[in-house]
């Protein structure tokens, strides 16, 4: 009984020995080929984004999570290997299609697209802006995405990537300032959005858009409740528009603050803007009355307040 067992054991040992010899015979050549071959480009194997919606079988967010994990890992590998991440823009299109309101990819797109071990192309810069604009479309009240969009379009891209396309710089700076203004209007004092958005006024002023910069500062002054920020904007307005014009703008804001304090002292500026002015019928009776108390909308209020401060010097 023992001899068959011994024979089987010897056969297994002989098989292992032969296999080891074969592996050793081909290993050196395979190792040489492996080290001589380097990956130059990526193969994109996914279908178009619209088809991925169907292939996800309803698990759209879960599929987006899997692709996002792949993006983060693959980005690190491409940096180590000093290769361009060719599929990043297509993966972004698919992730945004699967979960268009997921904010994390939007917040990191400028870093991922431009953090390459090789030179960033103008197409990648434009793609970054496209994704950020897609983000504010699907998340219109997300201050941080608006801020990232404004800073990238107004500051980062023109100063870093447009050496060969200087004709694009003025338009991008103006559009970046508009995005920053939107961020300031939406965010108010949230996460210091008002302070960060003031860079848009500098962009406009440096581009020669003085009137636009003044309007930017006036809107920023109107939406913030931070006294330090208001004081800073007052100084910028006086420097940019002159004492007389700045006094007009600040007088209109002071009229609004006085009205809010008299009517609804507990309300914030935002609440007051939503409620609108309350006309005083007794003071508005008869023809030719143009007092601020007669305004029926904030547009009408601003027009009447402007007439009232024409004599300010």
Describe it.
This protein is mainly alpha-helical and 313 residues long. Among the domains are: 141-241, Serine Threonine Protein Phosphatase 5, Tetratricopeptide repeat (Alpha Horseshoe), CATH 1.25.40; 243-313, no CATH class. It is built from 15 helices and no strands. It has helices at residues 2-36, 49-55, 60-81, 88-98, 103-114, 122-138, 143-160, 169-187, 193-197, 199-206, 210-223, 227-241, 243-263, 269-275, 298-308. Helix 6 runs antiparallel to helix 7, helix 10 runs antiparallel to helix 11 and helix 11 (210-223) runs antiparallel to helix 12 (227-241). The longest helix is centred in the N-terminal third of the chain and has 35 residues, at 2-36. The model is unreliable at 309-313 (pLDDT under 50).
Concise synopsis of the structure shown:
The chain is an all-alpha fold and 313 residues long. Among the domains are: 101 residues, Alpha Horseshoe (Serine Threonine Protein Phosphatase 5, Tetratricopeptide repeat); 71 residues, no CATH class.
């Amino acid at each position: 009984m023992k001899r068959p067992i011994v024979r089987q054991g010897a056969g297994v040992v002989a098989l292992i020995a032969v296999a080891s010899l074969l592996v050793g015979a081909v290993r050196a050549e395979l190792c040489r080929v492996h080290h001589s071959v380097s990956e130059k480009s990526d193969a994109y194997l996914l279908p178009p984004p619209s088809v991925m919606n169907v292939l996800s079988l309803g698990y759209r967010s879960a599929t987006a999570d899997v692709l996002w994990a792949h993006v983060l890992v693959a980005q690190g590998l491409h940096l180590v290997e000093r290769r361009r991440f060719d599929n990043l823009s297509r993966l972004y299109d698919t992730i945004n299609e699967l979960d268009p309101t997921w904010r994390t990819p939007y917040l990191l797109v400028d870093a991922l697209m431009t953090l390459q071990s090789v030179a960033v192309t103008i197409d990648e810069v434009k793609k970054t802006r496209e994704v950020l604009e897609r983000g504010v479309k699907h998340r219109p009240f997300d201050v941080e995405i608006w801020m990232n969009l404004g800073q990238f379009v107004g500051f980062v891209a023109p100063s870093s990537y447009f050496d060969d396309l200087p004709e694009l710089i003025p338009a991008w700076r103006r559009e970046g300032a508009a995005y920053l203004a939107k961020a300031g209007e939406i965010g108010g004092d949230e996460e210091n959005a008002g302070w960060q958005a003031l860079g848009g006024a500098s962009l406009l002023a440096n581009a020669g858009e003085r009137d636009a910069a003044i309007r930017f500062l006036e809107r920023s002054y109107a939406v913030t409740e931070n006294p330090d920020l208001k004081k800073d904007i007052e100084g910028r307005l006086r420097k940019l528009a002159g004492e007389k014009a700045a006094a007009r703008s600040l007088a209109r804001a002071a009229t609004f603050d006085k009205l809010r304090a008299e009517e609804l002292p507990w309300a914030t500026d935002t609440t007051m803007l939503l409620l609108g002015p309350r006309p005083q019928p007794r003071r508005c009776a008869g023809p030719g009355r143009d007092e601020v108390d007669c305004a029926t909308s904030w547009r009408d209020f601003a027009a009447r307040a402007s007439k009232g401060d024409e004599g300010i010097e």
